[in-house]
């Protein structure tokens, strides 16, 4: 009796047929997910900025400390950054505005916005890794864990075939 082995999936995605140009293509879930994740990243930046300026309630500090196993987390303050409140909120507002604009452009199907967001997400992930590897910076809930997680999810969503096809649906070939 011959023993049957289960079929294994290939470790790579097979080359697909070129996507036919279709200006009427519906927005895929991957594009929606990527746009929403970029908007969530903007919201996470606002929340982080508020935690820098205003002290966290004790229960939030306890939850954040329990999530990464460190107990209580040291809070980053404006004096640690060496910035005034006005300058800090100005920079935070500008970064948030740019992220919101890119999130909306992604939802509208801009290929340039998709590529730029994927590049920025890659740079953000690499920067966090280098900080951890070379400088010993911890990746915790209070530092870069949330942004790195969102960046990874953004890359997964926007690098899909459906998202690329939707973003390039109006291009002439």
As a percent range, the share of strand residues is under 5%
Distance between the termini: 54 Å
Shape: globular
Q: Got a strand count?
A: 0
What's the SSE pattern?
HHHHHHH
Please give the share of residues in helix.
Answer: 55-70%
Determine the structural class based on helices, strands and strand pairing.
mainly alpha
Radius of gyration: 21 Å
Low-confidence stretches: none
- How many helices? 7
Largest sheet: none
The mean pLDDT is 82
Offer a few descriptive terms.
173 residues; 7 helices; globular
Tell me what the structure shows.
The protein has 7 helices and no strands.
Structure summary:
With 173 residues, this protein is mainly α.
Write the layout of secondary structure elements.
Elements: H1 29-53, H2 58-68, H3 78-81, H4 85-108, H5 111-135, H6 145-158, H7 161-167
Helix pairs in contact: 1-4, 1-6, 4-5, 5-6
């Amino acid at each position: 009796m011959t023993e049957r082995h289960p079929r294994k999936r290939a470790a790579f995605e097979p080359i697909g047929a070129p996507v036919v140009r279709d200006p009427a293509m519906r927005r895929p879930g991957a594009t929606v997910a990527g746009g929403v994740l970029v908007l969530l990243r903007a919201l996470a930046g606002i929340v982080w900025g508020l935690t820098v300026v205003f002290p966290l309630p004790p229960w939030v500090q306890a939850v954040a400390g329990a999530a990464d196993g460190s107990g209580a987390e040291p809070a980053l303050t404006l004096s640690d950054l060496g910035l005034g409140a006005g300058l800090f909120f100005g920079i935070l507002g500008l970064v948030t505005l740019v992220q919101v604009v890119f999130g909306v452009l992604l939802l509208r199907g801009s290929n340039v916005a998709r590529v730029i967001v994927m590049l920025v997400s890659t740079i953000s992930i690499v920067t966090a890794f280098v900080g951890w590897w070379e400088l010993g910076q911890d990746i915790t809930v209070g530092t870069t864990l949330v942004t790195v997680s969102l960046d990874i999810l953004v890359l997964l969503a926007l690098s899909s075939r459906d998202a690329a096809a939707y973003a390039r649906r109006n291009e002439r070939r």
